[in-house]
Amino acid sequence: MPAMTHRFHHDLLGLIPPDARIILEVGCGAGALADAYRRINPDVRYLGIETSAEAARLAESPGRLDRVVIGDAAVVEPGALGLPDPRAEDQQPTVDCLVFGDVLAQMVDPWGVLARLSRWVRDGGQVLACIPNVQHFSVLVDLLRGRWDYQEQGLLDRAHLRFFTLASVRDLFHRSGLELFEIVPGWGPDSGFDRFQQVMAPVLRDLGIDPAAFALQTRAAHYVVRSLRATVPPRRMVIWSLLGSAIASEVRIGEPGAFLATIPGVRVVTGTGVQFDDLGRTWPGEDKVFLQQRVIIPRSDHLRLQRALLAHGYLIVGEFDDDPDHFAELGRTEAFALRACHCLQTTTEVMADSLRAHNPHVMVFPNQVATLSPPRADPDPSAAGSVTLFFGALNREADWAPILPALNRLLAVHGNAVRVQVVYDRSFFDALTTPHKAFEPLCSYDRYRSLLGAADIALLPLEPTRFNAHKSDLKFIESAAQGAAALASPTVYARTIRHGETGLIYHSPDEFSALLDRLIRDAPFRRGLAQNAYRYVAGHRLLARHYRARYDGYRAMLDRRDQLDAELRRRVPELSVP
Asked: Which of 74, 156, 282, 485 could link 529 by a cystine bridge, Cβ 3.0 to 4.6 Å?
């Protein structure tokens, strides 16, 4: 079987609506894209059309596609996939997202297939495609040299019957009656690209071809196309996020922003700085949201930023997820960073209550996880192996100090049967008396999740302090999504963990020791807790189920912007002073 049947374009994965109910993939191969998407949205009904019988058989394996039809997409009927026939008067199309990999270029009549299958997409549904670019500079060089070997370039893996440029891609979708709202170039191998542009410069000048457009069109190995089947164009919105802290920004900003960007008309910009001149460079008719994630800067600088945002018509949203009383700078500025926004967003109702002392308009978006790890396979009962404990946090010495003596005693009892993986906290690592330990410094979020996914038990201590009471249950749902059993304090976690069912809660160092000892010794019990927690996250705490609440929240605030603007200027009068 060709290797490509096991691959998929990651560009497409990031564009499929995370909450799609029905997806149809044409050229689904062995189901690799479906397998990856189900980690985001396990409830989807995923259908496929595939010409290879062997690939289709693999695609219908558990956890991949629900149904695959073997055949030519030009003649497959919707009934074969269990879909209503939109040609019938009493039937409406139901597909939320129609996906094409590289296959449109391999079809005899891609125009007819796209037009036919797009009629199976409901109003407001999307059609996505990845289309190889025949204008890539390596293809042009080979043509000039008399070669025609696409596989050598790694751009095309099968015989292509149709060849598309940027202009013909646009024509393909327009002829199908679709609202084309984005074409993103995908860069391929670029060795020799700069030299090619230099050589072609005089030719372009003589032919009257714009060098910048030519460079873009000849560097793209493929185009990722987003289109919409809609009777009404989507409302446009730009969400500009300014990061004040890299810690937890993936969960609070990065992943929700990526999900929001799958909504037609939504554009997301994220960075750690802002050029004031860029604030006015928005698209016509675009509603503007500016999200300030834990931005605590000198008051004069912040005042200048807020005035500029107001002048450009932005809805200013402050993002804060820690006890505001903990930050001395907030106190020195009379919480200017919280008062000088139209509204705020946070993670819990406890946080919201504290923030409302400074700003009455607070939206609560609880933390969620974006993806599940693949379910863990049941281990071989005869196989021996150590149990891995995981601890990953910053500035938690006051929280782990009470349980440290009990933990060290237990590690001494179990010896090399237990190892400890520590992330971030060097003091905790140094305080462990076992030699069976590993330390990872501050790392990427993907690396953090990978290490958590290799662990068996996650330790989640939080002492009952005001600061900790303002935290969320994020570390529990992260552990659950990665298949690790949680042993946690009651602070924060008792609100979510069902003791003895989805995790364990300890109330004293002695209880911590007894519960951890059982988790280490009783593998079936430990795995049962982890599996229940995994199912809880899959059913309730995936971002796919919640991200549209943010969109709806921003829309509601935008609809009240005049009122919020007036309140903001009364709350912070200096914003109106030139």
From this structure: 485
CA gap 541, 160 in Å, rounded: 43
Q: Where are the alpha helices (DSSP H) in 185-292?
A: 193-207, 211-219, 249, 255-260
For the chain, give percent helix, strand, coil, nearest 5: 45, 20, 35
- Residues forming beta bridges with residue 131, ordered by sequence position: 223
Q: Cβ of 525: how many Cβ atoms within 10 Å?
A: 14
- Nearest Cα residue to 252 out of 297, 295, 309: 295
Q: Is the pLDDT of residue 356 over 70?
A: yes
Cα 509 to the center of its chain, rounded Å: 38
Q: Examine domains 3-229 and 236-366+547-576 and report if their fold is the same.
A: yes
Domain boundaries, the chain: 3-229, 236-366+547-576, 387-540
Tens digits of residue pLDDT in 24-71: 999 999 999 999 999 999 999 999 999 999 999 999 988 899 999 999
Residue matched to tokens 């500029």? 308
User: How many other C-beta atoms lie within 10 A of the C-beta of residue 339?
Assistant: 17
Q: Give the bridge partners for 438, in sequence order.
A: 421
Fold adopted by 236-366+547-576: Rossmann fold (3.40.50)
Count Cα neighbours of 556 within 13 Å in the Cβ-side half-sphere.
Answer: 10
- Contact residues for 438 (Cβ-Cβ < 8 A; gap 6+): 419, 420, 421, 422
Percent of the chain predicted with pLDDT > 90: 73
Q: List the CATH code of the domain at 387-540.
A: 3.40.50.2000
pLDDT 10s digits, 267-294: 999 988 888 888 988 888 999 999 999 9
CATH 3.40.50.150 fits 3-229, yes or no: yes
Chain mean pLDDT for the chain: 92
